[in-house]
TrEMBL record:
This is DUF1579 domain-containing protein.
């Protein structure tokens, strides 16, 4: 795909369950993307998070895409309701994927580094990550 400028629609998955009882939630989004010589910028709207806006920046090359999604505030779920905290910065969400010519869409995985926890009395930390799948298709 030569130029990715345009409006995209897609979906990403989030594991809201546990290792013992997995449960997956799906969130729809739209993405207005500008592609200048393979460098990507744009604005996304998460349709299932009360249209929560975010910005993306990244690149694409030879069927591969990589971008970082950044919400303008911390977005979180509590008692099945979505909230935002303007005083806390949201961690970067890293997306990568490949173009599927048969489906005329991108699909891949996303990852977010959410937290670090101190492990015992030593100076080691446990990193916490969330991961999921995503896809998107050009609508215009």
């Amino acid at each position: 795909m030569a130029n990715l400028t345009g409006k995209w629609e897609g979906e990403y998955s989030v594991n809201i369950g546990s290792d013992e009882q997995p449960e997956v939630e799906y969130h729809a989004f739209t993405l207005e993307m500008l592609d200048i010589d393979g460098e990507l910028t744009g604005t996304a709207q998460d349709l299932t998070l009360s249209d929560e806006p975010s910005n993306i920046s990244g690149f694409h090359d030879d069927g591969f895409i990589s971008f970082i999604k950044k919400y303008n505030r911390l977005v979180f779920v509590e008692s099945d309701e979505y909230f935002g905290d303007n005083s806390i910065e949201h961690p970067d969400i890293h997306y990568s994927g490949t173009f599927d010519e048969n489906e005329n869409s991108f699909q891949g995985t996303w990852e977010i580094h959410e937290d670090q926890e101190r492990d015992g009395l030593q100076d080691s930390f446990d990193d916490m990550y969330n991961v999921g799948n995503w896809w998107m298709k050009l609508t215009n």
